[in-house]
Structures are given as C-alpha cells and as structure tokens.
Amino acid sequence: MELRTACSPKDEKYYDTKRLREEFLIDDLFQPDDIKLVYSHIDRIITGSAVPVDKELKLTAGDELRAEYFLQRREMGVINIGGAGVITIDGKKYTVEYKQGMYIGMGARDISFASVDSAKPAKFYINSAPAHKTYPTVLIKREGTPEEGVVIIKDENKKELGSLEGANHRVINKYILPGQVETCQLEMGMTELKPGSVWNTMPCHTHDRRMEVYLYFDIPEDAMVMHFMGEPQETRHIIMRNEQAVISPSWSIHSGCGTQAYTFIWGMVGENQDFDDMDDCAMQDLM
C-alpha cells in the first residue's frame, strides 16, 4: 500500500508540476490482476482499485493498517467502471454491473473481487474510511426494484445541474449518502457531463469539514481534463488523463475543465456528511 502524507497549503503554493503530481495525483490505477491502494494521511482515506482478469483478487489489510483484516476498523465504497464483476463478502456473492456500486460495512472479513468475463474485466474503484460502527452492506443500483440488500438511487439523488450555455450541464448521481445508504463518514457518487459540456464543480467551493478524491474516466486517449486545486487565491492545476484520481484536501478547491465531456467519481470523508455544506468561491475571487 502506498502512503501519502498530509500537506499544508503554505507548502503547496511553492510546488512545481512534478511535486504537485507526486503529492496529489494517483496514477496507474486499474492494473490487470492487481489491487492497488493509496493511503492518504488526509482524513485517513484509502483510494484504490481492483481489476480481476484471470484470477480472483482477495483484499488484505497489509502491514500498513496493523489490522487483522481490511475492514476491521473501516468501511468501504466500491463503484464498478468496467465489465460485470462479482464481489464476495464473507461467502455471499454480489454481481456488480457497470456503474453499479456497493457499500461494505465495518467488520466484513473476507472480501474478494472477480470478473464475470475475463475478456471484459470488471474495474472496481475503491474508497475506504475509518469507521466506528457497522452499517448494513448493500448493493447500489441506479435503476430497478428495491429488494433486500439492494438500494436503488432515489430520483432526488439524481440531480441535474448547469446548462450547455455555461458548458457545465451535468447529472450528479449520489450513491452513498445519509438517507439512502447510511455510513459512518463515507460519501460517494458519480457526475456525468452532457455532450458539449466540459466544466465540473463550477462555481467551485471548499469544505473544511471533509476532504475529497476525484476519479476521472470516460476520457479518450487524445483528450484530457485540467483539474484545478489549491486555495482560492493560490490556484494550481494538474493535467488528468483517463482513469487517474486526484486527492483534494479540505482547504483546496476541486474543479475541472476537459477538452470534451467526461465522467468522474467523487468520494468524501470527514466529520460532516451534509452534502450542501460548502464554502462557495465567487468567480471574481479566484486567482
């Protein structure tokens, strides 16, 4: 497991491009038949991926967690951005299709990942946070009929925002948040930009009560997203390619502009789960 330390905004303003990428960019995710995990000291979030192709992949705690098993003192959210896959949790199998997700509560011991078809492997994206209580493990679908162990994203949690004129017409799909999937602190969702729109999270904001990680995907090889970060009066940028993630501290804005439409998954951890608890940054105040 790769370890990343926390960073002060007083230091970040002096970083060059290479150092910015070393501290905040998570590259080389989604490696075949491998689990990759990055542990950040910022709110102790773990960001990672599992790509089972020819074998089943088992999630282990590793020496870094000093735990008997990965979710001994943690909770986890997973969203699949690849082919259909299977997540097995303490012997129970869950089929997770493209853009479906799971919340896995603290205390789940044996967790493994597999693909339904090795020619179209699953790509499981993972966010994990420290936990103090066990909440029910559930499969999360965007559409369908609710049943035991399955949560359907509510209509009010599929929020359409922006406009084509503002180049930010998008739909925010909230997968994991209070009132739909209960957690200790983790929230996750997926924002899909409409064709012709390129801006996300604009006007931008910060939120001192929680940090965030973005995973950008659905980006063609010859395209990119310019991810903006830093304090509102000391902004910086990181160029993002397909299936790369970026860590956003609570003091940093987190906004992006692409060369064309794209999709991103956001994950948040911290002490406040109020989705609308944000400190907005006026356009004229950004520097």
From TrEMBL:
GO MF terms held by the record: 4-deoxy-L-threo-5-hexosulose-uronate ketol-isomerase activity; zinc ion binding
UniProt xrefs under Gene3D superfamilies: Jelly Rolls, pectin degrading enzyme 5-keto 4- deoxyuronate isomerase, domain 1
EC number: 5.3.1.17
UniProt KW keywords: Isomerase, Metal-binding, Zinc
Catalytic activity: 5-dehydro-4-deoxy-D-glucuronate = 3-deoxy-D-glycero-2,5-hexodiulosonate
Annotated binding of Zn(2+), by residue: 205, 207, 212, 254
Cofactor details (free text): Binds 1 zinc ion per subunit.
Classification via InterPro entries: KduI, KduI/IolB_isomerase, KduI_N, RmlC-like_jellyroll, RmlC_Cupin_sf
GO biological process: D-galacturonate catabolic process; D-glucuronate catabolic process; pectin catabolic process
Pathway assigned to this chain's UniProt record: Glycan metabolism; pectin degradation; 2-dehydro-3-deoxy-D-gluconate from pectin: step 4/5
A Pfam family it matches: KduI
Enzyme class: isomerase
Reported cofactor(s): Zn(2+)
Role this protein plays: Catalyzes the isomerization of 5-dehydro-4-deoxy-D-glucuronate to 3-deoxy-D-glycero-2,5-hexodiulosonate.
Family named by the database record: Belongs to the KduI family.
Descriptive protein name: 4-deoxy-L-threo-5-hexosulose-uronate ketol-isomerase
Organism: Butyrivibrio proteoclasticus (strain ATCC 51982 / DSM 14932 / B316)
